[in-house]
Every structure is written in C-alpha cells, then in structure tokens.
Amino acid sequence: MTAVPPRKPAEHVERVLCVLAHPDDVDFGSAGTVATWTAAGTEVVYCIVTDGDAGGFDETPRDRMGPLRREEQRAAAAAVGVTDVRFLGYPDGRLELTLDLRRDISRVIRQVRPQRVLTSSPERWYERVGASHPDHMTVGESTLRAVYPDARNPFAFPELLADEGLEAWTVEEVWLGASPRADHAVDVTDVVELKFAALKSHVTQVSHIHDLESFVTGWMAQTARRFGLPDGRLAEAFHVVHTA
C-alpha cells in the first residue's frame, strides 16, 4: 500500500480565530505566525478565555491586574496587526472542562466563522512541562470540542441558533501550539521584531525578564533547526489537525 503524504495546511485563509487561556499566551507561542498571516491579508481575531488576573510579579493589586492585562493584550495584538480581541472573563488558574466553556467558545467560532483556529495543545508535554499549564490544556481540549462537534452541529447548544441567530460553522484546520507532536513550522525570522514588540507589551509579565529577546530567540532558533530550516532562521511550531 502506498503511503498517503501528510496533508499540508492551506496556504492562505480569510479568517483565523486564536483561542488561548491567558493574555500573552498567543504572543509567546504564535505572535510571529500571526504577523505573517495579517501581513498576507488574513483577518485574525483573538479570544482570550481569562483576564490573567492570577499572573504578575509585583505588588499590583489583584483587582487591577485583570484590566491591566486586557490592555496589554490589546496593545500586543495591535503590534502584529490584530484589532479584534475578545475576553470571556473566566477565572485565571481555575479553568475546568465544562459545557459552558465549550458553548462560549462555540459562540465565538460561529460569530467569527474562521477557516482556521489556533489554540494550545491539550496534551501534557513532559519534556517541557512549563508549556503544559492546566489552563492551557483545558482551553485546548475545550476548543477542539467546540470545533468538533459543537460549532458545526446545528443541534448542539440550540440557544446559539434560536436566541442569537448563530448558524453552525465548520472549521477546517486547528493549529495546536506547544505540542509534543508538532509537525509544521512557520519561519518568523522576518517578523521577529513584531513578535518582540507584542511580548514587551505585557509589562506586568515580562518586565522582570532582562534577557527576554535572547531567551525567545534561542527557543525559536532551536525550533528552526529541528525542522531543518537554514542556519540563522527562527520558527514557531504547531501540530496541524485537519478537521474537515
């Protein structure tokens, strides 16, 4: 039997929805990739599940941290060409796999109608356990369940159609970040300064990291080498799942 070559991601899509747990998640793992998409004319929308109110490294009062991180995420999004940033307002650090979360993500999918969704891997990566925050895995699994079967099934969460007029929508690709089985790399060398600008917008989270650029550059250079890119190139990696 002849082996079937793996399917490649679409070269261009009209709309992408990025669903991540916290402000800054999309920027650490995917801001360079997002910058390449927006530069190519793709509309990108962010859906951030929490306000990141359990993050930070200083004495900022807890009641101020969530609003601060929302503003930081909006500034970071603007740095890579994203103007539509939505927050679901779930509690940081306490996410659970619930029907409510699946419904809320399904709602945004039906509103945005993306051909591609980017989210975090639901798998724990034991060699990089820091990438496997429980909130990240919960959002990844919830998003995959929202993509299939919820958002495409007109009979799932019928209130979305009956009360809100949101028709079912089928997402064709899901890109999973921080995955132990990544199979696709995006060369982000030419947009890396935009990624750094996005990351530096998260003042409450990165101002204590004095070698941020060196740390992130080393990480992306290692990814590029792993995927066979030429020396000096930088990359972000994903596990691409075809869902249609």
From TrEMBL:
Broad enzyme group: hydrolase
Stored Gene3D superfamilies: LmbE-like
Protein name: PIG-L deacetylase family protein
Keywords: Hydrolase, Zinc
Entry-linked InterPro entries: GlcNAc_PI_deacetylase-related, LmbE-like_dom_sf
Organism: Geodermatophilus arenarius
Keyword Transferase: no
Pfam (any one): PIG-L
Domain of life: Bacteria
EC number(s) per entry: 3.5.1.-
N-terminal signal peptide: none
Single Gene Ontology MF annotation: hydrolase activity
